[in-house]
Protein: Heme O synthase
Amino acid sequence: MWRNTPSFAPKLLSNLKYYHHGSRSPSIFNANGIVFVPQFLSRCSSSSAAIPPHSDSLKSRFLNRKSDGIRAFSPTSSAAAVDLSPLTSAMQLARHYSRCYWELSKARLSMLVVATSGTGYILGSGNAVDFAGMCWTCAGTMMVAASANSLNQVFEISNDAKMKRTRRRPLPSGRLTISHAATWASSVGLAGTALLACKANMLAAGLAASNLFLYAFVYTPLKQIHPVNTWVGAIVGAIPPLLGWAAASGQVSLNAMILPAALYFWQIPHFMALAYLCRKDYADGGFKMFSLADASGQRTALVALRNCLYLVPLGYLAYDWGVTSGWFCLESSLLTLAISASAFSFYRDRTVHKARRMFHASLLYLPVFMSGLLFHRISGESELSSSLEAQELDSGTDNQKSKGRHTIAGTQARAPVAYASVAPFPFLPAPSYSVP
Structure:
């Protein structure tokens, strides 16, 4: 039938236009501009035996030829020209490197570090929080944390390539080179430390640099040597809130140890649950985790339970040392008993389900604990006012004796305005004087 039809090529072109503009096929062209008509070929497959050899050559010649007529109505011709534009290429390159830097820095983990540092900054600020200083501190902490996580992946590239959950990272997958990642990590680490030194103080910058060194050059190689790496990593996680406190107050006091202690003891059950869940992955990667030498999981669960119980007195200490009100003591005790109950359940029944429940409980504990610290914190204004009242009562006799020196011709003498902003407490209220 087709042999006697002289208008085969125009009909075929009209069919192609129908499949292109209709709803039966989204596209009939591949990336190279060659025609690909699956519906048309499947429709014609039933009558392929009736097609003579010269029509087969005509069809193959048409399917494989890149003619100008076909390109004229190709929907990808203009898109290909746009894709080759410098602007689009630059945007794709920026998107690629942004994604690589995001994964290389472990951005979610770094933001958790920033949250603990910001909480420490607020706790160490008294009743006057410098929000600009807090933003600078959080930015510097984010940069240093990103540098530490990037160096961690540079040193563990061969180990990450063996683990299922890390083999798709930028370095093992080949999306970035080692020299590129090392340059990025060094640059952002130095910039973050310098930012903390300029906008906060040298104590905060020193804590940041020390934490970077401890994480990248002590904790990272120790993961392949001894299970004590978990406790060293807990020290690394406890330093950021101390950094924030030091950036706000310029010193490290006993009250500043509440949140770092909570982070240290919290990380042990958190890491133990994660190490138990990923035992095979850690073994394939060559890491010496505590759970790998504990086939039954009893010692792992016991260590997690013991460190959960260490969290119990922190709420009372925060109240006793004047950091928070008495309500936080009650709320912290209830919260700690909840995570301890999940650890005890894992100790009694060492299954993957119980370990995952303890891991989720640890994820819930930290933000609730930090929120309680911020909500119930005592800014210090009430303590300062009570101490001033006590001093006024103690020196009442002296004030009566020296009243004549402060009055001139029946008018009370006022103290200078600078007395209301004595450094380093510019937020103190101006003293009140009683008129006789």
About this structure: The longest helix spans residues 131-155.
